[in-house]
Amino acid sequence: LAGYVEALASRLGLSIPDLTPKQVDMWQTRVSTHFGKAVGVTIGCILGMFPLLFFGGGEEDEKLEKKN
């Protein structure tokens, strides 16, 4: 999905930084890249779990426990 995100970012006017190969190999660049990916996955997981707030499955489980 990274390609789609980059295409959307370029359509919105955000430019891809022109880094030299030496800059790409710097530890700061790698840490920033991995941190950005981790933040993106975390936000995606939180957004994906958001609909779970609207499910009320606990009531059915309580009724089954009372019957047994």
Automatic annotation (TrEMBL):
Q: Which domain of life is it from?
A: Eukaryota
Q: Provide one Gene Ontology cellular component.
A: mitochondrion
Q: Which UniProt keywords apply?
A: Membrane, Transmembrane, Transmembrane helix
Transmembrane stretches, start-end: 35-57
Per the record's keyword annotation, is Transmembrane included, yes or no? yes
Q: Indicate the principal place this protein occupies in or around the cell.
A: membrane
A single Pfam family it belongs to is TMEM65
How does the protein's chain sit in the membrane according to the entry?
Multi-pass membrane protein
Q: Where found in the cell?
A: Membrane
Keyword Phosphoprotein assigned to the entry: answer is no
> One GO BP annotation here?
cardiac ventricle development
PANTHER family hit by this protein: TRANSMEMBRANE PROTEIN 65
Its name, as the record gives it, is: Transmembrane protein 65
